[in-house]
Design goal:
The protein has helices at residues 119-132, 135-149, 154-168, 175-182, 186-196, 201-219, 225-231, 237-248, 252-260; strands spanning 20-24, 34-43, 49-54, 61-65, 69-72, 79-84, 86-94, 113-115. It is an alpha+beta fold. It folds into 2 domains: 14-149, Jelly Rolls (Sandwich); 154-260, Arc Repressor Mutant, subunit A, CATH 1.10.10.
Amino acid sequence: MSMGPRVDRGTLYPNLLPVDFERIEPEHALIDLVHWWWLSVWDFPDGTTLRQHVLAYPTCNLAVETELVGFAGPATRASHRDLEGHGWVVGARLRPAAVPAFTGDPRTCRDQYLTLDAPDLHRAVTTLVDADGLRAAVGVVGEWLVDRAGEPDEEALAANHMADVCEQEPGITTVTDLAEACGVSVRTLHRLAARYVGLTPYAMIRRRRLQDAAHRLRDASRPSVASVAAEHGFSDQAHFTHEFRKALGHSPSDYLQRLRS
């Protein structure tokens, strides 16, 4: 299975992923529009439900699935989806430059999953999936996305750079840090984030820190909540617990208990 970078950063319970789940890198023509493709298929007996818990990246997603074509706006908190029966998804974690092709203001799409009117795309993808599997459909979705989004301009590429720096530089803990690393003003950061992400720059930074902290809690053999808080730039354990509970709905200690159970 060919997986993308940091594959389980946003997945809160990786052991509960569907058996057939894959992330693959985009082709060169799509690197300014897609972070990675994510492909999933499931087939459960009647009465079986698998709940997936995710603390999503600060981004939007395009998904062609069994019944529809969907656009997921940026998430402000952890979420879940219940999988039942048989289904599949050919999804793209979109880069900021692709977002204006779907909405002029992604802030209005926060925590929403919108159905897109794209019957020809859905029909073409379904035919390929049925005949040759999920990977065969990636190229069709990519061509459709390129036609819809067009060539990113300088501002869109600056938004991509902002998101990349925020995600890849763990030393960035404030909006001022991010602005300096990107070589732009704080005001410019806020403008780019509003148009291309739908979350504030601070929310983007906080999401990455919480994702990294949750990953550390999962990965360490005997994790200490206090040490994880300090390691990821929170002022103290109480601050970390407050932010963690606000985003995930429960404390770091409760999360550890859930992982063990």
